[in-house]
## 1
Amino acid sequence: MQTIELPLPDDFHVHLRQGPALASYAKTVSKEFGRILVMPNTVPPIASAKAILDYRAEIKSAVPELETLMTFKLNSKYTAMDLEQMKLAGAVAGKYYPAGVTTNSEDGVSDFESVLPVISEMEKLGLVLCVHGEEPSAFCLDREKEFIKRVEFLSAKFPKLKIVFEHLSTAAAVEAVLRLPQNVVATLTVHHLLQTLDDVVGGSLSPHHFCKPLPKRPEDREALRQAAFSGNPKFFFGSDSAPHEKEKKEGPCGAAGVYSAPVAVPLLIEIFERAYKLNKLPDFIGGFGADFYGIPRHKEIRKYGKEDWIVPQIVNGAVPLFAGKTLHWHKI
Ligand code: DOR
Ligand code: ZN
């Protein structure tokens, strides 16, 4: 069997949810990744030092071996003391959700100016700003492009602030990240490297591919792939794996989110292999993200073998990406 070795992968953007489902989602993630950045859009949101401590403890009790980097949801009410306490509790980043832009973001930022003092304190404290970069009022396919000006503004106003433009979906955002200073970086998901809008609505409706930001045009996907293959440390992996129960995706008001955790690494290997870029994968999944967050790279190595397997139709009550399809690589 053909095999490859990779560093133990990191995932710098994961949704683990809360309540009874959390343990199974976390266990599945821990089989694939050594270290994760956990998103705060639970209900209620992760928005205090106590919430961070409790959430981390809940994750740890499900999977003690999973290393978790915590985030809080940005709002305009935090004081400098709140931010310091959240940092002490283990937060490495705050997540900026424009209000209403995606799942559980109704309490997000509705007034851009109002969060600037908080962001200024984050810059002083060395807290990373992760942004869901979409302008909710714009036409759905233009939302990311319309948000670029905000990232440019934040980068100019807070030159020491580390900014992650999350889950890029457009060539325009890739171009912006390349153009902006070194402390502005981006995560790329596996589903945006694979899909275009055709995979969501081009044929019959595919609710399990529906996510925010929407996948866009083939040329956008190509720009994302070139960014991933480039070996530029500004681009690293964040899956945005976002499980929703099957019924919530298939109902009359389908939730946004692609559940990619169970298949993300095998799919990435396949995508990089097809492009003859396997040599760029170790840094993308186990290097650049750690460097950016200022944490040591993993020393542990994972071995993967090339042997067909069929992705289950359902994992933890949710339909995973590539359900029922054949993948070629798996962990050994
Ligand atoms: O599709 C998405 N789902 N995009 C996000 O930004 C959030 C996520 C979720 O939490 O379900
Ligand atoms: Zn997300």
## 2
Amino acid sequence: MTMACSRRLRRLRPGLTLLAALTVAATFALRGTLLATPPSPAGCHAASPLLAGPRPARPPPSPPTLAEIEMRNGALWSGGFYSPPGCQARHRTAIVIPYRSRLAHLRYLLDHLHPFLQRQRIHYGIYVVEQWGQGTFNKGILLNAGIVEVLRDADWSCVILHDVDLLAEDDRNTYTCDNYNPTHLSVAIDKFDYRLLYREYFGGVVALTPEQLRKMNGFSNQYWGWGREDDDLWKRVGLSGMKVVRPSVKVARYKMIKHERDPGNEENPHNFDVLKRTELDWRSDGLNSLSYKFLSKERKALFTHITIDVGEKQT
Ligand code: BGN
């Protein structure tokens, strides 16, 4: 820009600024009078005033019935959705619970999770994704299918993959996502003396944005039977250029409800071999190669129940 030109602009600027301000003011006045849009509720505060802090989970000897839990959660919409009254939620979180024949655990978890999330004042929905039939369990396919189905269902900004047997013990452990990196929420579990099991442990409860899930191509579909699909997920995070972040071990505390290994979910030694191949396979094995049969979606009072067929065990 020449000296003369910039001097001319400087002279013009005060006039231009006034004109711009008048235009903006006129636009707002017009909007206010002509469109009369009701004021939208203010955004919910980052730290909810309803938080209770540390609270050891003490599940009763037998779980409450679904009807009892429903009575205690009158503010839910059909399908297990919730939006905080009086303020605009800052986050939209889908909780995905992989499931097969663990009704007692599911009842404990729902009884615990609904009030926990409502104290955090987030907009959320709970989805139970069930593997149909008696075949070998495949948690990776189940979670991949859950991710696809919930993102098809609504505009979620965060997906939390949640084991059915874990109860969070401190509501300052917020069920939201980090914008850049996958989050491991179940850092300290009572069964492991409230210590991180090992540095690469990425199981239990994890939070990922749809973008992060796409980047890492979701889970592998090749883990049949118990274990290691979460170790594979850890590797995918690094391979796709991200890192796992964790809240403080003081806050990210969980109680695990005791149980026996489920039939159809026996440990599969072959999964160790699959884990050795993550680096080679992750780009072509995952969300982009997922195959399952959608069987049903039912809106229940406390959750949306999705049932799928993962197919036959491959290895
Ligand atoms: C780990 C399993 C995980 C499982 C956790 C919690 C392995 C790989 C060797 C380090 N991983 O030991 O898949 O989620 O236990 O039970 O065995």
